[in-house]
Every structure is written in C-alpha cells, then in structure tokens.
Amino acid sequence: MRKRIAVRGVIAMLFAAAPVFAQAPASATDATASGSPEEVQFLKSAEEFIRKLFAWGPAFQVKLGPLAPSAAADFYSVPLQVTFNGQSDSGVIYISKDGKTLLRGEMFRTDTDPFADTRAKEHPDGNPSKGPADARVTVVEFSDFQCPHCRQLYGAIRTFEQKYPQIRVVFKDFPITSIHPWAMTAALGARCAYTQSPDAFWAVHNLIFENQEVISATNVWDKLLEYAASASLDKDAFKACMASPEAQKAVDANIADGKALQINSTPTVFVNGRPVIGGDPNTLQQYIEYELGTQGAPPTAKSAPQAKPKPKQ
Is residue 313 included in any domain, yes or no? Predict the structure, then answer.
C-alpha cells in the first residue's frame, strides 16, 4: 500500500518535468542552515529559486541543508524536506558550489559500486531467509502483512524461489501502522514464530498472506494463535514472545533499517542493492537475471541452516 501519496506527489516534482501545485511564490524565509553566514545565505538563495521553480508558496514549508559533499567535487549534496498540509517527505538535490546550477535526480560515481551503500544498510542477518547463505543474488523484501500489494508480491516471490533456487530471499518487517491497524501485531507474531523456529516462520508468513482478507484488528490475535498452532509452535512460548520487548525491538530495528533506506511504501525490494519500489515482478525478474548473468554461474551450495535470531541492539 502506498503511503503519503499527496506528499510524495510534492517531492516527486523534483524529479518530474513540470510542477503540479499552483501556489504563489514566497520569500526565502524557511532555509534552516545552522552553519556559517555564507552557508545560510547560500541555502536561502537556493530555497528562493526552488520555490519559484515549483511555485511552492506559503502553504509549503521548505527546509534545506546542511551542505554535504557529493559524488561530484563541484557540487554540494543538499537534503530537502517539504511539508504540505501536515505531511512531510524528503529528498536530495545537488547545487554547484558557485550556486549557479541545481540538479535534481540521482548522482553516482562511475568508479564505485552504486549499490554498495544500500547493501550496507540492509542488515539481512538475523531475519527470515530462504536460499543459499552464500548466494550470488540476495533479494531483501521490506513488507507489511496487511498490505494488498505485498500479498501480490508474496505470490511472485514464491514463483521466483522455484525458478531461481540459487537466490537468497530475506524478509524484513515494515508495518505501516498509520493505515494498517493489525500490521504490527502480525509482524510481532511472525517474528515470534521465527524466534521459535526459522522454518515455522514461513508457514505463519504464508498463512497470514493467504488469509489476509479475513484477518482484522479484532481477530488478529486469535488468527495468529491458530497459525502458530498449525505450525506446531509452543502456544505458551508464542504468547509470551508476543508480549516481549525483544520481539518489538526486532521489528523496530527492521523499521529503522527501512527508514535509513528512505523506504516509505510497501513493498520495497532490493536485488543485490538495486531498489524496486512496489516490487514489480517484471523488474525483479530483470534484475535477478541480470545479476545471475553478470556474476557468472550460480553456486551449488545447499541452504545453510539458520541460527535463531539475536535481537538487534
């Protein structure tokens, strides 16, 4: 399910051909630099230009900065946050050090791996996974059990697991509680299944998605107990885990990882660090096949047994 559609529409204008909203331009009073007077003035001038370019008037709160190095020596990387109608979103723009050129989009160094930083932030260990531990291709899925699009992706992932047994698939929780009232409870239940038995996690995971339409905020607890029993989990241990701070910490750690990766909608999937927002199956297949072809023959190692997870500190 997409989150904050209106706000993403605002920030998306940075990467679109033309602005969508029509507001009268305003003076540059919202730049929030806390650096030198030169940096403050630099960001105020940049904000003034951005407001004029996209017609962002007084209804839009704009925060820029601080200035940071970018992949190009002559440009600053500048964080940008836009708030409109009480909702916020953020992105990054690039401004030349002489203040005369603004770039929107993404900037990469051509002499480095463009997805290395993303992979470093994914933290797949300690989460449910299938496939070889030393797989050449790792698919990391950030998902919400109540999200209809995540349920659709669930079917596609199962197909990919059969078609490409040499890949590793990692599941990470990203419940969007503002629109999905039982998603957090389901995430805790699945995490507690994993704590007892990594294999049982997938049984509970599958049952939640396959019965998504009959689960509600009022019956989710009973449904989870039912699914845990069908996976042969210890009922008392499962219930104790559901109320434990360790389970909540594990889910919160995954949410924090997702936010560090600037995820704000589900599903969001990474194939060796390549992002696929929305989890489009055709794009996922393209990326998987590209990575398998680029990196040579897949390994023949058997799936490594999963150790029981340790809560992330």
Answer: no
95 shares its domain with 216 = no
Per-residue DSSP letters for the chain? ----HHHHHHHHGGGSSS---------S------S-HHHHHHHHHHHHHHHHHHT--TTEEEEE---EE-SSTTEEEEEEEEEETTEEEEEEEEEETTS--EEES----TTS-TTHHHHHHH--TTS-EES-TT-S-EEEEEE-TT-HHHHHHHHHHHHHHHH-TTSEEEEEE---TTT-TTHHHHHHHHHHHHHH-HHHHHHHHHHHHHTGGG--TTTHHHHHHHHHHHTT--HHHHHHHHT-HHHHHHHHHHHHHHHHTT--SS-EEEETTEEEET--HHHHHHHHHHHHHHS-SPP-PPPPPPPPP----
pTM score, two decimals? Answer: 0.76
Residue where the block lists tokens 């650096």: 35
Q: How far is the C-alpha of 313 from the C-alpha of 153, rounded, in Å?
A: 30
- Taking the C-alpha atoms of residue 184 and residue 192, their distance in angstroms, rounded to an integer, is 12
Helices 220-230, 235-242: axis angle to 10 degrees equals 140
pLDDT tens string 140-173: 999 999 999 999 999 999 999 999 999 999 999 9
Q: According to the model, what pLDDT value does residue 12 have?
A: 56
Alpha-carbon gap, residue 237 to 92, rounded angstroms: 45
**Which residues constitute the domain of residue 141?**
116-294
User: Which of 306, 271, 267 is CA-nearest to residue 290?
Assistant: 271
In this structure, are 56 and 141 located in the same domain?
no
